[in-house]
Write a structure and sequence with these properties.
The protein contains two helices and three strands, in the order αββαβ. It is an alpha+beta fold.
Length: about 90
């Protein structure tokens, strides 16, 4: 069965709305650049609707630790509460 692009976009939007409406705690993973430690690069957003209020935060922290533990990695990874933001606030 083929699923159209519009159907996929609607499903993704509904998941995001459900997460926000249910009080899900969204957490976003960022990293800096090897060339500019002030740069802010979006890696992933954790927005699973889960019963535990720390589920997304814990998964983001694990991902950050795993990325930084890779051999040769010279950038910093960190998690922030909320959806992706392009600038510092």
């Amino acid at each position: 069965m083929k699923i159209g692009l519009l159907s996929i976009l609607v499903a993704v939007t509904m998941v995001g709305v459900a997460s926000a409406e249910s009080g899900g705690s969204i957490v976003t993973l960022y990293r800096n650049s090897a060339l500019d430690d002030r740069m802010r690069i979006h890696i992933a957003t954790f927005d699973v609707v889960e019963t535990s209020p720390t589920y997304n935060s814990e998964n983001c922290d694990i991902a950050a630790e795993l990325f930084e533990a890779q051999s040769g990695v010279s950038v910093r990874y960190w998690c922030e509460p909320g959806p992706y933001r392009a600038t510092w606030e």
